[in-house]
Amino acid sequence: MGTEGVTLSFTDEAIDRMAFIAEDVNSHAENIGARRLHTIMETVLEDLSFEADKHKGETITIDEAFVNDKLKGIMQNQDLERYIL
């Protein structure tokens, strides 16, 4: 994002939510540790990554609502491990 001039700011609640989801999936599926968190973050930031050039010079705040929105389809499915590495 930095190469496109985009700054990301994560709220504490967003970080807590992503960590909670990673821990929850790890507890119900194979525990792959931080690789799960990496996949969650990749999913949350996917659209921004592909559209970063449209946000040059902006600071984008990632909050809990943003995380929930990006992961809502995954969170609604009981079989989370199928979707998150």
What low-confidence regions span 5 or more consecutive residues with pLDDT below 50?
Answer: none
Which secondary-structure class do the elements indicate?
A: mainly alpha
Quick one: overall form?
Answer: elongated
The profile of the biggest β sheet is: 2 strands, parallel
Name the average pLDDT. 87
How do the SSEs run, as a string of H and E? EHHEH
Number of helices: 3
- Beta fraction of the residues? 5-15%
**Strand order, largest beta sheet:** 1-2
Radius of gyration over C-alpha positions, nearest whole angstrom:
13 Å
CA-to-CA gap between the ends?
23 Å
Strand tally is 2
Roughly how much helix do the residues carry, as a percent range? Answer: 40-55%
Could you describe the 3D structure shown?
The protein has 85 residues and is mainly α. Helices cover 54% and strands 9% of the residues. The chain has 3 helices and 2 strands. A two-stranded parallel ribbon has the order 1-2. The chain is elongated, with a radius of gyration of 13 Å.
Task: Give the secondary structure arrangement, pairings included.
Blueprint lengths: L6 E4 L1 H17 L5 H17 L8 E4 L1 H12 L10
Parallel strand pairs: 1-2
Helix pairs in contact: 1-2, 1-3, 2-3
Short summary of the structure?
The two termini are 23 Å apart. The protein is mainly α and 85 residues long. The protein is elongated and about 40 Å long.
Keywords:
mainly alpha, 85 residues, 2 strands, two-stranded parallel sheet
